[in-house]
Amino acid sequence: MEIIAISTPILKSGDDLARILMDTSDIRDGDIIVVSSKAIATVEGAAIDLTNVTSSKEAQSIGKEHNKSAEYYQVVLDETARMNGKVIQSVNGIVLTELKPDGMNEGSILVPNAGLDKSNVADGYVIGWPKDPVASARNLREKIDADVGILITDSGLSPRRKGVISFALTVCGFDPFTSMIGKPDLFGHKMSVTEEAHADQLATAANFLMGNTDQSTPAAIIRNHHIPFSDFSGWVEGIEREKDIYHGVI
Q: Is the dihedral of CA 19, 29, 141, 165 positive or negative?
């Protein structure tokens, strides 16, 4: 498998992301294009101007506790509500949110700050996910002049693990999971519960080249991956709380 970084000029609202990706790389039939959710949100004009935000008492309380902007935390609360979520807790200025966006049928997404960042956006603004990442992935796939899959990602954290990884938000054109149930291990024992989270695995692999700082590399090509294309288009779903091994811990 090959991972090929796609570096671009600094993106801005209104840019034609599909055209930029095609002009700055050699996209071929069969490739999977991994794209940062923040890049898509940027070109779709989803950045939020904090000077237009009025903070609630709850946001002011969180801001005072962590000595940070109440307006920023208000946007976190607003995005959490928009995606049918709730605040779990806040630690060191980071608000852990649990989101269940419209169209996500199973499970939820545990993510810091409802997916919002103050990095890679102009001063005084915050940037989160596209308003409809499923539609964004579908539209991008339609505009690229090749038969490709699309994977939209964001950075996140794993319980009790240090450092940032990446995970898959939505996928278009291939199945995000591959079941290993019933397949033998090295000693002939049949697997009973294992599913390979290929979308998440590809997201983190691509993020190794894409980065999170000033690389200006918002996308990557996954080539020779041997993952069959399909009609799948949607959120990468999870599992319900009561089935989660971390249930009761977080």
A: negative
**What single letter denotes the amino acid at residue 224?**
N
Q: How far is Cα 73 from Cα 41, in angstroms, rounded to an integer? A: 19
Longest dimension (CA), the chain: 62
Q: What single-letter DSSP state applies at residue 247?
A: T
**Distance (Å, whole) CA 134 – CA 131:** 9
Q: Which helix (H) or strand (E) holds 65?
A: helix 57-66
Nearest CA to 117 among 158, 64, 79? 79
On whether the CB atoms of residues 134 and 170 are closer than 8 A, the answer is yes
SS3 (DSSP) at 214: coil
Give φ, ψ of 160 to 5 degrees: 65, 10
Amino acid identity, position 160: R
Under 8 Å between Cβ of 5 and 120: no
Whole-angstrom Cα distance, residue 18 to residue 96? 32
Per-residue pLDDT of the chain (250 residues), as tens digits, is 999 999 999 999 999 999 999 999 999 999 999 999 999 999 999 999 999 999 999 999 999 998 889 999 999 999 999 999 999 999 888 999 999 999 999 999 999 999 999 888 889 999 999 999 999 999 999 999 999 999 999 998 888 899 889 999 999 999 999 888 888 888 988 888 788 999 999 999 999 999 776 778 999 999 999 999 999 999 999 999 888 888 887 7
